[in-house]
Amino acid sequence: MKKARLLSILMAMLLNVGFVYAQDRTVSGKVTSGNDGSALPGVSIVVKGSTQGVTTDVDGVYKISVASKSTLIFSYVGFTPNEVAIGNRTIIDVQLVEDSQVLDELVVVGYGSQEKRTTLQSVSKISAEEFETQSAITTQDLLQGRAAGVQMTGSSGVVGSRANIRIRGVASITGGGEPLYVVDGVPLNDGVYSNGLGAVSLNPLQDLNPNDIENISVLKDASAVAIYGSRGANGVIIITTKKGGNTAKTQVNFDYYTGTMDATNYFDMMNADEYRNFFSAYRKAQGFTTRTSPSDFDQTGYDWPGAVLQTGSQNSYALSARGGNEKTNFYINGSYLNTDSFTIGNKLDRLNGRMNLSHKINNKARVGVNYSLSFLDNDRISSDNSTGAPLTSAYLQVPTVVPFDENGAYVNTGFIQNVLAVEALSIGNLISRRNTGNVYVEYDIIPGLTARTDFGMDGIQTEETRRSPEIVSPGGTGYKRIIQDNKWLNTTTLNYEKYIGGPSGDHFVGVLLGNSFETSRFNSITVAGSGFVSDALPNVASASTPTTTSAEGTEWALLSQFSRVNYRFRDKYLLEGSIRRDGSSRFGANKRFGIFWAASAGWVLSDESFMKDISFINLLKVKASIGTAGNDRIGNFASLGLYGAGNDYAGLAGLSPSQPANLNLSWEETQQFDIGFTAALFKNRLNIDFDYYIKETTSLLLGVPIPFTTGFTSFDQNIGALENRGIDLMISGDVIRSNKFTWNSSFNMGYLQNTITDLPADNQDAEGNNFVPGTASQRAIQGQSLNTFYLVRYNGINPQTGDAEWLTKDGEITNSPTANDRVIVGSAIPDFTGGWSNTLTYGGFQLSALFNFVSGNMLMRDDRRFTENGSSSFNNSRKLNNYWRAAGDVADFPRLDSPTARTFAQRSTLQLEDGSFIRLRTATLAYNFPKALLEKTKFLSKARIYVQGQNLLTFAKTDLEPEANGGGNSNLDFGETFFTPPQARVLTAGVNLSF
Amino acid sequence: MIINDIKEINMKKIIIAAITLSMGTVLLSSCEDSLELQPQQSLSTDLAFVDKRAAEGSLIGVYSAVQDLEVFGAVPQTIADYQSDNVEFIGSFPTFQEIFQYSTLSDNGSISTMWRDNYAAILAANAVIKNVPGVEDVTFAATEKTQFVAEAKFLRAAVYFQLVNNFAQPINIGGVSTLGVPLVLEPFEGVVEFPARATVGEVHAQIKKDLEEAAAVLPASYAGEFTRGRATKGAAQGMLARLHLYRGEYSEAASFANQVISSSTYALAPGYGFYNGLTSEDVFTVIMTAIDNSRTGSGGWASYYSPAEDGARGDAPISQDLIAAFNEEPGDKRFDLTKVAANGLLYTTKFPDAVNNTDNSPVMRVTEMYLTAAEALAEQSGVTAAAINLMNPLRLRAGLPAWTISTFDSKEAFVSAILKERRKELAFEGHRRMDLLRKGLALRPVGDAQFTQSAAGQPKTILPIPQREVDLNSNLQQNQGY
Fold first, then answer.
1. What is the pLDDT of residues A557-581, one digit of tens each?
2. Cβ distance A458 to A506 under 8 Å?
3. How far does the CA of residue A705 sit from the closest CA of chain B (Å)?
């Protein structure tokens, strides 16, 4: 046998040699772009029917030795391949036409990739070209307005704040609602790694570097997410980083931008004179006997908001190299970002490094590594509900209070802290280090059958330091917490893909089999102390009283097997099924394993003979899918009855009941049905993706609120159901496509209707509707949306009497409403979200603009309960100067002696605003230097300069920031703000150079 | 030959494929065990009473729950002070602001948290009362078990007493049949109950039962500071004295107060240096240390009663009315327990530590027993030497002249004078509101904007049942006016 094999190899070699001898001709030429005539470097030229090939050099020139009668295939990413029979020619210049259609594009899906033309999964893909000039601090920013059905709400203008991302609505009430993030096959840890400081904790993914991203796939329907099983219900976001390639020449890129940051919006508060006049008049009218004249107040004044707002800056540098040869490809990137926000004391420095490497050991075996490391130093501020928050306190601080004494030293301003002193003297920062990556081995067992195993890790360590100075807390306080969340995982897959009966066979079969184990261990160490000799001593070691010395840990593990099977007949009739079995440590032993599945079918109508004649249709595919996925975001030990340790008393160790047991706690399951079509029309100039879906979540993992008389707040149960129903639409096209001028436009929109369909009946409002309480303003009500505002209706100030009026439940006017007068007044969930992007190119100039919009949602501005509150001891909005004075006045505040002036600020629809807006998210003007000019430099292959503005224009129903969301990522607290810092207006200028 | 070749290759491939898959399977079986994880900072419920150590930990957990900010950690006491006349409110917290202005709504967050944390303490006590007798541990003596249960009963009674005083009309206004609070006496074991409100009479009866059972078995003292910081016979008797006083049962009140006074464990302190001292002045104190205290991020006693420059909120300066009360008899040493803050207002110095919140919660000190005994005697027999003799040590300690039989010309004048002493003596220690209401008096002085609304029996002199609770539990009846 061995001899026979040797012989056959020798034969093959001889044949090869023979073949080589038959190469009797050298063909050369230049490959240019059919669009602008520029030379195309890196074009792959292969002799048809062989593996022999070359690539073009930087000038687009190639040279290849071939046999006569050969045919050359010219191919280049983004261009239509061109087959040329060489005939008798020795010089063959070729023009490649840019392939504006995306149909042969690959889309990244769970554990693989599929051709866009034949995929049955609903996946939105966002490529680097769309965002490469956007000065994004966090990766989630890139999703805004770019993918249908993905609602990204910028939660706060604080640098590194947590974004709220919902894919096709919220699929859970008290479980987590965030999608799963997967970077190059590694699902990321996204726990809570920082303190809230008055708001919600920081974005756990702020370490990711947007500059490294090649594309982002958003997996939406059941056929796409079922393969992620118990973590798929909220959708999956797969991030693929840049890779090297078989290029003739290593491409070195340098990207730089610099810019400024300002607040898009802020409150208009009273100055000192207005404050004295208003409050003395108010107090006098209300019958107070002190401070009834402006002269009774301090005669000083200070502009606090002006002192904490500033024009910030942003600088980003990235230097990368990508390239390789037939055996080894690499991508290496190093980048540095620094941001100084529009609020004093809020800065971010981030260093990222990445190396992606792949290597062919031989024709069958490949190894590779994707690895990134980051270092991040976030100089934090408090925000929202904190008296040490620069913005909150600057608004609320009485304007007669000045921050300095006569000697220029900081003074203690009392409960509302002297935020200038806080920012100058205190420490509040978070240092984060993250290592994420994997190594893999791939082996082609037989043609079409590939085995792959990878070992991945995601290790994050954060170190949070806080130090309050003497002026805030006598003696000072110090705090340090170090968190480590270390994950490792192993994924092994077998993947088989084959057209039965050769490459053009009728039957295609694809089978994916895999198993995976993933575990993560979270540990934290916290120390705190008080009593320092000096503010110059930063560490807890110098504190006289150690108040906290704590070390905690927790862990989880997930064990899974999964499979996906594809069958296609003539690439026209498409079938796919997937299944996953997950075992999770988070569930009780009886309910530990769950099975999730999906099935889908599609039909490429445009390949049918009866459609062939309709020439303007290039592709028409209809598809439908149904399946399930789960949600495991419920904490690590939700099913156990627990006594929490550390409930100590006077130095004795104690235990207190901390969680009631529910050993039957099981998976929350989301079933999704999706039907849609994909069309490419008019020579692929117009592309449409349409999906209609019904997403039903049953057995909700509900922390059912129970009476406090049980000793607990909530009891985790599988109870209730909700539904998200909607439409995702994406239309993109080349409006104008000529040699000189192109206009590409893309519109996406998600329509969403969220309805709570079932809730436990032991929790009913006065109308008999079942509900789950959220905040004081919103609740999840059966038959309504998850974020339904339930408030007393404000009816305005009676122009005749000057009294504020509200409505009772029955719609009668009242001056003293009660909680029983609350009614349903709207939802925080938008009906429509989406974006519209445009790119206009003329010669080297490129103008692009991205708008995003949100419509049909309400926004609760809890802060207005403070800024329009005459009885408060804080500063107030300038609006209150327009209080009712005489009959007929249309006023913003009641008659000063009205009893309703005291209750005006009570929670009602007065503070509820329409949250709809359209925002010019980014606008960019870029100039690409002509190739001819660059060639003269001998080293530059690409040069672009650009200017960009973010959030330049906003059209909103509210006067204030429409995009704030103080609840961060909470499902039951959405669309409310309490002095949440607004989004930044960013102006940048940048350059991209390739060498 | 070629066919053989392919066969051989396939054999090899198949082996590789099999190895790949079996690798996964090996990994799989070894990992099934990895799904068996346990929490690290908590114990499952069955371990919380597995032996004496755990049972004691569970009892200490009840004390820890009582230590909570919203139980005996300052908030209920501060809320009561905002309703009455010893402090002003100058802060920002809307929940306290509306209480101070008598515009309290049923969705008040502070009141909701107070209700929650008081019941959490009660339920923790219920678990101890139910589970400790069944703990199988040879080292766990029957007397110790009885003592642990009695401690939990004392704590449960103290918390129920606080709840019924704050959420129900006093018995002198509404009688025994007025609505009290839900009586929950069993631990939560998975079945959600929706209890209705028991009457004030029923709640009082339960408190009395728990306290009497506790007083019968609790030790008089413990080692070290815990004589002041854990439930004792004296503490249970003192709480019974308070209960009977509030019910107008003066003979029982005097009797229990005298039992405490005559105990050798307690003695009137010579001066006012006893605050936070855990001295024989203290009958029951919730101890706060820098490491374990009421702080839940929002503070302790000093947060409200101390001025802002001490690191506090500075929300509760002393009222003009209390200052005037002290000025009626100048030279009162108890008025020296104050200081003028940077904002020019006067604050108490009873709770100085706003940084670490180590100010103990002064639930009961022996001085209260003197005042209770004197008042009870006066109510029964008018101006008597016995009652005067109970009051004079307090008068002299304060640097004020002693009283004689002839100081007062009527029982009413005497009782009123005792109440004035009680106000000045126990200011900011959680007594003032109930001392006014149980006497049918308005919480605010004549001339105050809220005088009418603060009359005893008016709706907003008691707190609303939290709206959340009413929403969740249809058996719960809301208080009138909310």
1. 999 999 999 999 999 999 999 999 9
2. no
3. 8
Q: What is the pTM of this model?
A: 0.84
Indicate the domain borders of chain B: 44-190+199-217+439-474
- The pLDDT, as a whole number, for residue A21 is 43
pLDDT greater at residue A687 or residue A611: A687
B-chain residue closest to A528, CA distance: B291
CATH architecture of B44-190+199-217+439-474: Alpha Horseshoe (1.25)
> Under CATH, which number does the domain A106-241 receive?
2.170.130.10
Mean pLDDT of chain A, nearest integer: 90
The least confident of A140-144, A217-221, B278-282, B414-418 is A140-144
| DSSP codes, B79-143 | HHHHHSSSB---S--HHHHHHHTT---TT-HHHHHHHHHHHHHHHHHHHHHHHGGG---TTS-HH
Q: Mutate which of B7, B20, B72 to test chain A, going by most A C-beta atoms within 10 A?
A: B20
Torsion (CA) B405, B409, B413, B419 in degrees, nearest 10:
0
**Minimum mean pLDDT among A114-123, A294-303, A659-668, B126-135: which range?**
A659-668
Question: B444-451 — which CB contacts under 8 Å span 24+ positions?
Answer: B444/B84, B444/B85, B445/B85, B445/B321, B448/B85, B448/B321, B449/A287, B450/B101, B450/B102
Q: What is the ipTM of this complex?
A: 0.92
DSSP β-bridge partners for residue B52:
none
Q: What is the pLDDT of residue A13?
A: 41
- What are A358-364's contacts with CB under 8 Å, separation 24+? A358/A243, A358/A244, A358/A324, A358/A328, A358/A329, A358/A330, A359/A327, A359/A328, A359/A329, A360/A326, A360/A327, A360/A328, A363/A444, A364/A443, A364/A444, A364/A445
- Locate the domains of chain A by residue range: 19-96, 106-241, 251-296+308-650+668-787+828-868+905-994
Residues of B in contact with A765 (CB under 8 A): 471
Going by their DSSP bridges, the two strands A94-96 and A25-33 should be labelled as: parallel
A709 interface with B at CB cutoff 8 Å: yes
User: A19-96 with A106-241: one CATH topology?
Assistant: no
Fold held by A19-96: Immunoglobulin-like (2.60.40)
Q: How far is CA A321 from CA A243, A318, A334, B234, in A?
A: 10, 10, 9, 80
Q: Give residues 676 to 705 of A whose Cβ lies within 8 Å of B.
A: 705
User: Tokens 């929300």 correspond to what residue?
Assistant: B315
What is the token pair recorded at A987? 């102006």
Q: Which of A821, A708, A831 is nearest to A773 (CA)?
A: A708
Residue of B nearest to A6 (CA): B5
Q: How confident is the model at residue B18 (pLDDT cuts 50, 70, 90)?
A: low
DSSP A645: E
CATH architecture under which domain A251-296+308-650+668-787+828-868+905-994 falls: Beta Barrel (2.40)
Whether residue B65 contacts residue B122, with contact meaning beta carbons closer than 8 Å, is answered with no
CA dihedral B400, B401, B406, B411 (to 10 degrees): 10
Q: How many residues does chain A have?
A: 995
Of A562-566, B8-12, B432-436, the range with the lowest mean pLDDT is B8-12
Beta-carbon contacts of residue A987 (< 8 Å; ≥ 6 apart)? A259, A260, A947, A948, A949, A950
